Amino acid sequence: MGQSILVAHDGSTHAQEAFEYALETYPDANLVLFHAIDPFAVTPDATDASAPLSEAWLEEHREDARELFEVALEGLETGDARIETDTAVGTPAPTIVAYAADAGVDGIVVGNRGRNDAVDVRLGSTAELVVRRADVPVVVVR
Length: 142
Description:
By secondary structure, the chain is an alpha/beta fold. It has a single domain (4-141), classed as Rossmann fold. The chain contains 4 helices and 5 strands, in the order E-H-E-H-E-H-E-H-E. Helix 3 runs parallel beside helix 4. The model has no long low-confidence stretch (mean pLDDT 90).
């Protein structure tokens, strides 16, 4: 049985680069493409008609994650890597760390910045917190 690697993906270009890095670096691994559904994230163009944290809200966000995963996989050579997808609700960094611990993964791969893409930040807050709190090796892809 090969390694199991969690790849956090938020739909950003940095997350996509991290996913592509994981595919190249761990070609025989079981990759868990993971998205944390942040209940506190508010987007100006949100079309959430459902009450926050309701079943309808959760299903809407899971569907968004499924679309995110489809886009992430589009046109990529996955080789022998086994890719599964999953989501969990919570603030991204602690949710990534908790999921990794519960799933017993061997490592985590994250992009250095997420969707906020602040230019003056060397390491995004989510990546930094994952590095500080995870009990497994974390690779931050620039």
